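Researcher: Please generate the 3D structure of the following complex. Treat every line as part of one assembly.
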Amino acid sequence: AQRVTQPEKLLSVFKGAPVELKCNYSYSGSPELFWYVQYSRQRLQLLLRHISRESIKGFTADLNKGETSFHLKKPFAQEEDSAMYYCALSGDTDKLIFGTGTRLQVFP
Amino acid sequence: ETGVTQSPTHLIKTRGQQVTLRCSSQSGHNTVSWYQQALGQGPQFIFQYYREEENGRGNFPPRFSGLQFPNYSSELNVNALELDDSALYLCASSLNRGFFDSGYTFGSGTRLTVV
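Model: Done. Output below.
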């Protein structure tokens, strides 16, 4: 079965602290993995996808097939990073399977 | 270039009623996917439409049905509403099936409350 697990509902850090949002997946093939973000009162939007290997807004995510993880990292959190973050997987179909999300709170 | 627009933004229905939600896809996009997001959960895939044909369906009963029109806009219909259908319904458009372009563009959603 295809599944995405985000174990933390809430992650609170102070500005300037490192951030790691955890994501583990279950899929037997080669997945495509994504991070989506939803800022307050805004729509869900793509943050990054593993195949592009980009760094967006200082965030990076590395696919670790051995640990079946795709954790989202940022070395120095900013207040404007406060949002809801969803990890998502696309397997052998055209649908996205989302995790339950992690709310990131960055305090000043 | 316009984004994805959904209507209405909020809706209250009574159990047993039927509801139709609408979605206009982003200009140039020919694929529309619908997701249900219950409170505290991530979005769950309902179905996808590509060039007016259903292209994949999630684990939702047949009372959830859809349409895509020649202009690629789409409707989600839910019959015999149940209390558990209360959720945020998200529409996402993309260029072609799969995620080989920039992926989905999401709408702001329709919040459906069933009482």
